[in-house]
Write a sequence for this structure.
């Protein structure tokens, strides 16, 4: 049986999610391939050892460069803070490894462009970890749009709201340090919305945004640190196909825990999704008889829905972690079959372009054109 | 018993709503005053006569100027298209009549300013028909915010979505003619959101918007006419108190009938309202015990809730029309007690200022400052 | 113009609802008839006078017998406690007056039978005040079922939950006195569910129930009184057409204010209704494409929906009181056109039969057959 | 490191769920124990081999008796149809193995009693697979009730609705054969509701039910088979503590996929749960300030909620499969710490008693007392 050996860089929240998915992808998507969780890589030895043990990695290492060069490593998964994505991904590509990198791909569009350049002519599979594309309800939304069930698209409306910073006393974190995270709610949450908007509606042409940092220092007593990223960023968009869009990301929205929601309106129908009810897709169709038109709540757990044949009988819900399993199923499938997968580094670059244009617009106070490829 | 004689200008959708409310306000808010639906005014005689009969008006007239000058008229209610608001309202004020004018107050801020000038030193009660302030759930929201239950306000997020133009074959209407309506979704729907934002969060400082007309001609066969207003307008706002806002009005949102929704996030709590569930207010409070924190769905029908003592026992829902009754209760109360009421012509002017600044920003492609009074 | 003169017996909650509806039915359903709120009848003079004034009645009287016999009275509306329904209704029928009587029709099936006997051969229109049939969403449900959209009906599931007695300290009321009210939650709330079940699914064949009085005395200090009715009654039903049913009425369901909900499942579809969202009907259809099957939330406010042409544009919600206006529109229509209307006294009798059979089953501890007509 | 070796009997839907959980319990609940998926047991060799491979079992066998007797097996998990539970469980207990058995425990109360007798004096951990107790929202409900947040319990209201048999053309299955399944919707779905009612409210005293088989033959062409179980069973219950209950299980509820829902009303508060939104708990509290009382939607994903420290940050939802992981975490914890766990075979027996009493009541047409232990 063919084996594929994985190296994972990072062992925190995302490292755990990737480890979980790697341990379950074959269970749900059997493919005659043995996936080995070979090496997990991190910097803090005691935590790394514990993660290796709990998450079932055969080895651990503090030297990602060395690991990437190992002949027995086939795949490199990057689940580190954004600031290290570029270097690791480019080295992995040079070493001919398949790469799955967390989002946002780069600290900015220029980094992402270099990453795209590094992979585009190499025979590897590259992917960006926009796991929300792998929610079955989102995959179904894509299918319905492609089938024309919405007609011409008029509006995209996305909100990704969390509240872990709403309390001014919430502690400091690397995610609030621009040097490490690149940006705040914008790069973390709007990146997901932008990817979904590109996936479902298409490319944006122009954007203008507003960002806000409500709490400028966090921490306790003497260990106060400056918050150097945005707490929230909202922006307007004009899509290439004529649709208009509103986007908002915030970590200050009290009561909203992981409210990744979107609505798309077209001439013939509308779709609604909210990650807090991730197994459901709202769908309204003008083609229904007039007297029974209404938003349907599709419970996306039927055998015939995307990804669902692999899981449970109808009505047995999926959770957050399942999206990572679905993602790895597609990634591994591409490796085995030597095909491409989306979102890949090109998509990651495009996403970074939008992020950057929004940031620029905040400085210039006017609409910025997305440069495109 | 003291009597108050009303003249109503307009007999269509809004004319019907006002007539209804005038016929019911004393039933629910008894006040020892007899309200007489004295004269209804319009231009098309046969329709006017029918309206007078069905809606219970004692007289009808096609000459609003004459009616306004009648000694036996105490109150003038303006439920006409926006283009005639200014002239009627100013004449009514000159004649010393109390005035309730539909929204938006003026075709633009300059008109509204003149209207405000005309009333501000006259001893009359003036009001703008932003009836959504009279939804008990909205009045409760105001109370909770004033009590500090949300802490510092971070975000306002308003969407007012309808779909009656989503189909490109939907017919032409005066509401799509800039000369009569002033603007499209913007003046019609964003006007309500702006009024609610000012009421609940405070004044805005700067805005930038995007508008779109998706369908440029409507009508059938030879009777095609140009649509000269926006089908949708979205904008970003910076509030004077530091909060950020997103606003979107559209008549192209398939499946959304009268989806007037808003969410406000603060450091200690959040509120959510959707007119499609107009008897409910969503409320999340950080002061709840941690393990039971969650958005409450308050059914705003208790005796202790604003306006509700006048209506039915708890759990017996109000409808759209009740907001007009509540509005007239407040208006008549101000007349009787010689007090002020909000939103008045000053508020209407401020609302028009925001509308105008958004429109300007669409031309200048940059943030526009709200001029203020 | 033809005039119809109304006498209303009762001026409390239901008296207010009827007065409201009588004052508005012609506004929304113009019919070239003048309805006069002629006389309101009650026992407590000062309250009666106040009600007459506030609710706009031309006269008031404390002698219902005298009023019923007046030549200038055409219609008698009975909005009194259940114990007086029979006597008033039978006298009104003898006097040849049209009668609209609140529910439940009689204190028991025998009373209701006598009432039915009294009206069935007289040329009057008789109706029972099951206003929930006049919710547009319920009328639409009836239409969809009649069109076969649910296929064979398998289940009816009704819950009518309130909470005004959940607190043991809630005060005594005539509604808790068996001599006046007949029964508690059962006759008050199950009566509505039974009427809706008969309307939507058909007659029941057998029932068995459980009732409970959780708090046996209410009141303060020395003025404690015995509660002689049920706080809650639930029952199972076998319908004549083979469907099974579950019913539950309670005034002890903390947090549920007027939660009158029902679900009907059939071989081809399902319907769901909850009065707390009274403008919506849930509908699931097997005839939808497999991948987009889901419960639709139909906002029942389109012109094409039952009753809605009379009201407001789509998306402008109705409230509790509108159901009474719709009810009077149908009642007056039947009077004018000399037709029948449902639910009439026959339906009221059938409803009382089910109520009685449930009560008997609680004593006999076994299934009771509904006797039928 | 200590090792625990597992044998699993059954490889279908439940076998997959158990295999999944066994493969993930240590990942989320690290405990210094190595769990080995040692042997999977089934009857159909080719399917068994495939399951062993896909689900990661080290060995497979068609002889459960032999496997149970192996010295290197510590735990026996029974995921077979109900008819084989008794024999396997008793043999496992005799062999001194810990046992986790799927629900319902026995074909009837007598079988379950024998199983309880077999384990009660043996030093093993025994558990029944009522996985819904391991939904964090349900565990939180238990905690809130135990803390007195609901006051005295008045009502339990449970519905477990599916629709896979609603279409008369749905195929035959072992689940519709009384010899193998014991009963239909009753034993399959009401068993879960009964377990949750016992867990949250307490023991029942009396019950009466109604069952229905709507479609008596299923299958195609010549291979029609008789359906010998109920399609739906509903029952009323009187709880020992005075509360009343309604229960309904159906596989004929079109549009309901796995609608396992319950509501509990008490003198001080209410709880609501629906598995279709399994990460949420509805909670209403009289102790809230009057004007903001309302059902809260608690998103049960905080660190402080039951089981959640093991999973993801707040707002990242769990799915169906996570309940099995939580269940095994508790089961393994009990094995390691030599403690008891619930629901155990005693609970399984009590559940079977209620199931049986309902069935008896359907024959006797009167209330049946639950016998108790």
């Amino acid at each position: 049986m063919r084996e594929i050996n994985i190296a994972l860089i990072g062992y925190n929240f995302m490292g755990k999610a990737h480890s979980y998915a790697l341990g379950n992808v074959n269970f749900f998507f059997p493919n005659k391939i043995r996936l080995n969780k070979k090496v997990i890589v991190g910097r803090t030895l005691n935590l790394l050892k514990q993660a290796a043990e709990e998450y079932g990695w055969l080895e651990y290492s503090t030297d990602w460069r060395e690991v990437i060069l190992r002949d027995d490593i086939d795949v490199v998964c990057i689940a580190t803070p954004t600031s290290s994505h570029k270097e690791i991904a480019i080295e992995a590509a040079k070493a001919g490894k398949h790469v799955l990198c967390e989002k946002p791909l780069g600290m900015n569009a220029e980094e992402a462009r270099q990453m795209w350049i590094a992979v585009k002519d190499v025979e590897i599979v590259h992917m960006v970890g926009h796991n929300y594309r792998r929610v079955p309800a989102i995959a179904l939304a894509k299918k319905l749009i492609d089938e024309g069930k919405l007609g011409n698209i008029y509006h995209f409306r996305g909100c990704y709201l969390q509240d872990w910073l709403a309390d001014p006393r919430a502690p400091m974190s690397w995610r609030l340090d621009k040097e490490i995270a690149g940006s705040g709610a914008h790069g973390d949450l709007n990146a997901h919305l932008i990817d979904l908007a590109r996936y479902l509606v298409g490319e944006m042409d122009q954007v203008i945004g507003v960002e806000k940092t409500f709490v400028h220092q966090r921490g306790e007593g003497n260990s106060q640190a400056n918050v150097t990223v945005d707490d929230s960023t909202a922006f307007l968009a004009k899509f290439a196909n004529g649709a208009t869009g509103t986007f908002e990301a915030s970590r200050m929205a009290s009561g909203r825990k992981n409210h990744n929601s979107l609505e798309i309106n077209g001439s013939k129908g509308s779709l609604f999704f909210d990650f807090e009810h991730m197994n459901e897709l709202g769908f309204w169709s003008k083609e229904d008889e007039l007297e029974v038109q209404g938003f349907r709540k599709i419970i996306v757990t039927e055998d015939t829905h995307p990804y669902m044949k692999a899981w449970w009988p109808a009505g047995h819900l999926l959770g957050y972690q399942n999206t990572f399993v679905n993602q790895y199923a597609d990634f591994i499938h591409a490796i085995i079959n030597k095909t491409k997968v989306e979102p890949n580094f090109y998509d990651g670059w495009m996403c970074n372009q939008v992020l950057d244009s929004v940031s620029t617009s905040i400085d210039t106070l006017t609409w910025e054109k997305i440069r495109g490829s």
Remarks:
- Chain C has ten helices and 17 strands.
- The first strand of chain C starts at residue 2 and ends at 9.
- The CA atoms of residues 98 and 124 of chain C lie 5 Å apart.
